[in-house]
């Protein structure tokens, strides 16, 4: 039995899904092909994803390909209730997603998709994978494989593999170039800034934005913040990434040293306790803090709430906490994914590549899982090339090809200077 806010919202959701589809030509073409070939026929897919218009279009492709699909939310604040209703009514998946639900309801939704007894798991953050292995091991015998779409989830699955706990093969969609080079950088970069602006309506030009973490997502946030006139400071623990930020023309320093300068702080590390209460107590009065990582563990929200002597909601997704003998701290989106929670998530054009890679990964598992050992495997480069080439074609871009002589030169070790 599905869990929705209101099925009558489906009409509005359907319109938004259709608009996103126009900007997802690669996935739309795959959906047409899947409808003819039915590669997912006989398979039951349990998916734990952000319930957005872009996700809806991947659901459409999977169902068109013959899959029985159950979908739950991977974050309670990223769910779009009208989209969830339309996925249920118009696409035919069983949906368990309600915006803003409490933690208990959230995990009931995750458990709800397992009634399908999945043969394939499509995950975002590895919650579904972890719950299956910890609490529902009886389901493992039916599962041929899974996919994981975000950095944090891939890290968790690699840890499971190291511990010998992962019992089926997983394709890490996040590690595909058609995902992290575009989705993480351009998608996260844009929607994080969008979320900050919608929540605060602040002027970025002239402000100082401290970005904690300079992975692909951090690069994207820095690029967009700098493009809007902000002064950008990067804090890092990885010397290679710190050096890259320095050579990209950004200020690099320890977080403790940045506390005197920052107007806005963005965590994007995938780790916990990145901004602590001690950090917040030393920030400027009125400092804005937010998180762009998958889980709400990067900012010490509970410690902030306990230490505050007063709180008030300034705007939607924008709450001010007053610290005794300390600054006023403005927390966005409860410390959850600010771009998903306060804005519209990744643009459809970017998710076109991510979800096309994901869908082709599911097809690859169906065709090859029987010969794959449990563990995290690479996304085949052939899938990435198909997606990238189709995206270029959709943009009307053509590229060069190697001549026979050039191809021979690249594969012959005998030819030198």
Automatic annotation (TrEMBL):
Binds 1 NAD(+) per subunit. NAD(+) binds at residues 184, 213-218, 236, 271, 292-294. Its main location: cytoplasm. Belongs to the adenosylhomocysteinase family. This is Adenosylhomocysteinase. Keywords: Cytoplasm, Hydrolase, NAD, One-carbon metabolism. May play a key role in the regulation of the intracellular concentration of adenosylhomocysteine. Its EC number is 3.13.2.1. It comes from Lentzea miocenica. The gene is ahcY. Residues 184-345 form the S-adenosyl-L-homocysteine hydrolase NAD binding domain. Substrate binds at residues 52, 124, 179, 183.
């Amino acid at each position: 039995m599905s869990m929705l806010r209101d099925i009558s919202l489906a009409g509005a959701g359907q319109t938004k899904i259709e608009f996103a589809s126009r900007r997802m030509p690669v996935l739309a073409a795959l959906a047409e092909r899947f409808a003819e070939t039915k590669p997912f026929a006989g398979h039951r897919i349990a998916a734990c994803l952000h319930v957005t218009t872009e996700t809806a279009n991947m659901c459409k492709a999977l169902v068109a390909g013959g899959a029985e699909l159950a979908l739950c939310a991977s974050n309670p604040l990223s769910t779009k209730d009208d989209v969830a209703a339309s996925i249920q009514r118009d696409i035919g998946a069983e949906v368990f997603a309600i915006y803003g639900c409490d933690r208990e309801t959230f995990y009931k939704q995750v458990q709800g998709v397992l009634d399908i007894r999945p043969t394939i798991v499509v995950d975002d953050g590895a919650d579904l994978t972890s719950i299956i292995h910890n609490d529902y091991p009886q389901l493992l015998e039916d599962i041929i494989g899974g996919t994981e779409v975000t950095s944090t989830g891939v890290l968790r699955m690699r840890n499971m593999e190291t511990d010998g706990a992962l019992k089926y093969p997983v394709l890490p969609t996040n590690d595909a170039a058609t995902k992290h080079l575009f989705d993480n950088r351009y998608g996260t970069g844009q929607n994080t800034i969008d979320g900050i602006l919608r929540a605060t309506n602040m002027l970025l030009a002239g402000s100082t934005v401290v970005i904690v973490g300079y992975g692909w997502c951090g690069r994207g946030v820095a690029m967009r913040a700098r493009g809007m006139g902000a002064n950008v400071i990067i804090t890092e623990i990885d010397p290679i990434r710190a050096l890259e930020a320095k050579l990209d023309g950004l200020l690099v320093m320890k977080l403790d040293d940045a506390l005197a300068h920052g107007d806005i702080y963005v965590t994007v590390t995938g780790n916990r306790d990145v901004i602590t209460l001690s950090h917040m107590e030393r920030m400027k009065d009125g400092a804005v803090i937010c998180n762009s990582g998958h889980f709400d563990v990067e900012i010490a929200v509970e410690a902030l709430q306990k230490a505050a002597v007063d709180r008030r909601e300034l705007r939607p997704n924008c709450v001010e906490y007053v610290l005794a003998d300390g600054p006023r701290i403005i927390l966005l989106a409860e410390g959850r994914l600010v771009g998903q929670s306060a804005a519209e998530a990744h643009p459809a054009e970017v998710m076109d590549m991510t979800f096309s890679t994901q869908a082709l990964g599911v097809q690859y598992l169906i065709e090859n899982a029987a010969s794959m050992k449990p563990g995290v495997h690479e996304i085949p480069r052939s899938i990435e090339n198909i997606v990238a080439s189709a995206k270029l074609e959709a943009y009307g871009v053509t590229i060069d090809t190697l001549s026979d002589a050039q191809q021979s030169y690249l594969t012959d070790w005998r030819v030198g200077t």
